[in-house]
Structures are given as C-alpha cells and as structure tokens.
Amino acid sequence: MRILVTGRDGQVTRCLADLSDDRHEIATVGRPQLDLTDAGSIAAVIAEMKPDIVVNPAAYTAVDKAESEPDAAFAVNAEGAENVAGAADEAGLPLIHISTDYVFSGDKPTPYAETDETGPTGVYGQSKLEGEKLVLAANPRAVVLRTAWVFSPYGNNFLKTMLRVAKDRDELRVVDDQRGTPTYAPDIAAGVLAVCDRIAAEPDGHWSGVYHMVAEGETSWAGFAEAIFAASKERGGLTAKVTRITTADYPTPARRPANSRLDTTRFVETFGHRLPAWETAIGRCLDALDTSAFPPSAA
C-alpha cells in the first residue's frame, strides 16, 4: 500500500514516516513541492506518486498566534484541507484527515462523542472545524480523526517544553483545570495505519466520517507535567515541582476548552484498534528522546 502524507516536519508526519515498511510504503511531501494552499501542487504530487491513499496531518497549529493570524490559519486548516480532499477525490482516492479536540467548547462535563455539538472557542479550533466540513463535502471517502494533546520526540510539544523549562527552574506553575488526554504521536501514526488497513480491506465499506482517536485515560496539564517529571526522574533526568494553577492564573490569547476529553468508542468499534494509555507513552517518549538536550542539573 502506497501512502502519501502531507508535510515533512510535523509530529504525526514524522512518526508515520518512521513506520514505512514493505507493507506500508509511506512518502511524506511538503513545501514547496506540495503546498496545501496550492491545489495544483497537490494534484501534481498525487499524479506523480500514484498513492493508494492520502493522509493529511499538515496544519497551522500555532493556537495563540492564530488569534492574530486568522487568514493564515483558515488558508491552511480550512481551504488547504479542502484542496487535499478535492485532489484525492479527483484521483479516486480515500483521505484520512487529522483534526483536533479544539473543535469543542469544553463545557460538557463528560467526554465528547462525535455526535456532540461543536463550538470552538478560538480561531485555531474554528479553522479546523471548517476544514472538517470542507473535507467531508469534497471527498465522500474521507475519514476525519480528531486527536488531542499530541507529544513525541519530534517538534515542539508540552513534554519537551516541560523538560526545557525545568533546566532553569525548580518549580513550574501548570494549569490544572483543563482536562484531556495526552496522545503519543507514534500511537497516532499506528492508529492511522489501522484505518488505512481497514480501508484497503473494505474499499466499499461504511467507514467514512468523523472519529475520535486519542490514548486511553485522562488527566490535566498539571497531571501530565507531574507524570513527565516522575518518568524523567526514574531515568536520572530532569525533574521539577509542579504547582497546580487555574486557567485564570495563566491567561493566553486563545481560550482553551476546559474539557478536551474524547470518547473513542466509535473508533475502536469501527477499526478494531485502541491506542495505549497515555501514561505508558511518556516513558517510551523519554527513551526515544535525545535527552542530551535536557541534561539534569548539577544539583
């Protein structure tokens, strides 16, 4: 199976590239060869590579910056996503599109199901929600996977930020009233391939639509930070005390949802795949990370 993945440097993209093998031939293509804002470039790459399926994890992900750059966010996350979906459809190909928990307001007291009303609180979430709608309209063989709180050895993410900041500080103030599920990008990549396998096995099956795909379990950002430092300490690495604060104590340009928990029942039942618990992924991430960039302090 030949899989075309948009982008080169994103966490999920790089983790998908790591899984390329004889069974799943994965090619990642980004700018300038493939530009989400240029539909012609996407069609040209598809024509050249002749993939069996297209995966679109590429996105504008600067959540706070999006508040002052809405046009840029919508150009990539909405119009760009539509361009990918349309080019895949023109070539007769299914599409897997990666979306986010930020399409919800966070007001619900329990985990969100796919059928729950959306209500993004910021530009980033609004642009991703619009992208979902455009993708599903442009390609009837599209699967939208909403995930959350992504971390990995690659790129910028919460785990790496905690380790970086702990190099200079013994105590960190971390928000405790936002709950969700940290999800390891290699596990997301494995989940994407499970969807690819189902599509290949049942090309005319009833698998299109929106699904929630996150790790098992839940926590707050503060709980996530504490787990990171506990696992790091076990490995002789950096640690710091976590002081739990409220969202009001740490204002940001974009308002985050207080509840980002996603119900994965539909995904598990449809694709027969379940992502591992988030706690176990922390150790795997630390073991894969080049910790020389985060040496423990002399103390």
- CATH fold node name of one domain: Rossmann fold
Strand order in the largest sheet: 2-1-3-4-5-10
Report mean pLDDT, rounded to a whole number: 95
User: Alpha-carbon distance between the termini?
Assistant: 51 Å
Strand tally is 12
Number of helices: 9
Rg from C-alpha positions?
A: 19 Å
Strand content: 15-25%
Describe the protein in words:
With 299 residues, the protein is of the alpha/beta class. The protein has a domain of 205 residues: NAD(P)-binding Rossmann-like Domain (Rossmann fold, 3-Layer(aba) Sandwich), CATH 3.40.50.720. It has 9 helices and 12 strands. It has a 6-stranded parallel beta sheet, with helices on both faces. Helix 3 runs parallel beside helix 4 and helix 5 packs across helix 7. The longest helix is centred in the N-terminal third of the chain and has 21 residues. The protein starts with a strand and ends in an 11-residue tail after the last helix. The model has no long low-confidence stretch (mean pLDDT 95).
